[in-house]
Amino acid sequence: MKAAIAEARKGRDAGGVPIGSVLVIDGVIVGRGHNQRVQQGSAVLHAEMDCLENAGRLSAADYRKATLYSTLSPCDMCSGAILLYRIPRVVIGENSTFKGPEEYLRSRGVELRHAHSSECRQLMTDFISASPSLWNEDIGKT
Question: Active-site residue among 7, 48, 111, 137?
Answer without folding.
Answer: 48
